[in-house]
Every structure is written in C-alpha cells, then in structure tokens.
Amino acid sequence: MARTARTARPSRTARPPRPARTGRDGKGRERLDNAASGRAAPLSPLARAVTMLAAFAAMVAFAVVLARLTLEPSAASEALTHSNFTPGDSIDAYLSEPAFRDTVKQLGGNILLGVPFGLLLPVVLPRTRGLIRVGLATAVTMVLVELAQGAFVTGRTFDIDDVILNTFGALLGYLLLGRRLGRAVHPRRRHWWHRFTRRDAADV
C-alpha cells in the first residue's frame, strides 16, 4: 500500500526586524515616541533661541496693543458704560444687539484678544504650559486689566464677561497651536522612571 505524501507545512512568515535604537542618550527613542504620539519634534538649540526671542518680542508688542485697547480713556462713552460682575449679562446683551456685525465685533474681538496668551505663554514662560495654567494666567491678567480700567480709566469699567471671553480665546489658541509650540521649544525632560512608565514606540 503506497504511502500518501505528507502535505508541506506552511512556512512561518519572517517577522520584520525591529528598528534599531539610535543614540546613547535616548534621542532616537524620543524621536520615535514623538512620531508615535503625534508630538512636535524638539527644535535645535539655535531654532529654539530664535523662537523664544521672536515669542518674547511678540509678547511685548501684544502687551503694547493690549494697553492701548484697554487702558486708553474714552470720555465719550463714560455715560453709556456700567460695571458688570454677573457672568453672562454682557454676553446676552451682545447677542441681543440688532446688528449682527456689532455682535461679532464684541464677542469675536474679546476672544481674539485672548488668543495670543495661549500661543505665546507656553513659549515665553514654560511653567505656564498646560490648559489649566494657561487659563488661570490669562484670567488673572485680564482681571487685573479690568480692575485697572474700572478704577483709573475714564469711560472704562470692569466686565467679568470680557475676562471669560479672553480666557476662552487663550484656551482656543493653546489647543490649536500653543501646545505644540511649547513642547517643541521646551521638550519634557526624560527621567529614569520613564523607562518603566513609557512603552518604547518600537515595540508597539
């Protein structure tokens, strides 16, 4: 009786080689982690210095513009202005204006005024990185500006809704671009415990 030929077993597919880890200081692993998580790659020292200098100059220019927009007297509107300490009152008034253009100007202008905080603070002041820290720093700054308006500037008053809109703009700017800029200019330091808390991107 003839023996039946054994069916050949399928050969095991060779596993692709793992990417080599480059650099003794962990820079290769850091680049892999950034690529896997979608983080911005750290800048070179020269690019970092130029970016910080440009951000500082932009912050100074923004401070000048902010002072001119908020701290210049307006005697013509002195009789029309009033302080607002109730959140939402001024926003309701803006939304109820018959002219849509005026509504967009009031709401959009206050939001745009806060966007530079979210873009520049994480670059100029690394300790303010983070959504909550950016929001708190912007809110404190704008509260001081509003208090100065109400106490010393003719035709200007304190409005809590302006603080809310400015802070919202700062959070928007941080989420859109400020977070990535801050991480690119000030990358997080790698500590020894990161070896146990972070998985190598090459093993995923």
Topology:
Layout: H1 27-37, H2 45-70, H3 89-95, H4 100-124, H5 131-152, H6 160-185, H7 194-197
Helix pairs in contact: 2-4, 4-6, 5-6
Task: Provide an overview of this structure.
- This protein has helices at 27-37, 45-70, 89-95, 100-124, 131-152, 160-185, 194-197.
- The model is unreliable at 20-26 and 200-204 (pLDDT under 50).
- With 204 residues, it is an all-alpha fold.
- It is elongated, with a radius of gyration of 27 Å.
- The relative contact order is 0.17.
- α2 packs antiparallel against α4, α4 (100-124) runs parallel beside α6 (160-185) and α5 (131-152) crosses α6.
- The chain contains seven helices and no strands.
- The longest helix is centred in the first third of the chain and has 26 residues, at 45-70.
Determine the number of helices (DSSP H or I, runs of at least 4 residues). 7
> What would you call the structural class?
mainly alpha
Tell me the span between the first and last alpha carbons.
53 Å
Computed CA radius of gyration, to the nearest angstrom: 27 Å
Mean pLDDT metric: 79
Q: Which strand-content bin applies to the residues?
A: under 5%
The proportion of residues forming helix, as a percent range, comes to: 55-70%
Order of helices and strands: HHHHHHH
Low-pLDDT ranges: 20-26, 200-204
